[in-house]
Amino acid sequence: MNAESHNVNPLLGWNQRFTPVPPSVHHVRHAAGTALLAWGVDAGQVATVQLVLSELATNAVRHGRVPGRYFEVCIAYDAEKMVGLEVSDPREGFPVITAAAPDDESGRGLAIVEVLAEAWGVRQRVVGKTVWARVRL
Predict the structure, then answer these.
(1) Model-level pTM greater than 0.90?
(2) What CA–CA distance (Å, rounded) separates 65 from 44?
(3) Smallest Cα–Cα separation from 81: which of 34, 5, 11?
(4) Which of 40, 87, 103, 130 is the most buried (most CB within 10 A)?
(5) Residue 135 near residue 117 (C-beta atoms within 8 A)
(6) From CA 84, how far away is CA 62, in angstroms rounded?
(7) Is the pLDDT of residue 47 over 90?
């Protein structure tokens, strides 16, 4: 993990705010998948990007929620091989990878991001933070 940006020079981009409730994670996945498919990304690669994005969005809903505030999702695509993802939430503090026990039903999200993304990191904002990931197609 490092503090850089996702560092993708976007030819195509998309962003949207979401209410920090569990059903929003499905809406994030669906909206991102629709955009990526429209941009010509292969369906198998879209699934990988959606998995990384849903882990980041789930963390924003579970750990970044501040009543009355939204979380924001941004996607940047260079139209070749790189997708940049950003999920911003209003809660202070940086996420960390934790070791989940075999019977834990949570605690593996950032470990999944670490495996599937080329790079990921966190940067502070005036209010809250942005967790970003860069996925090579």
Answers:
(1) no
(2) 31
(3) 11
(4) 87
(5) yes
(6) 22
(7) yes
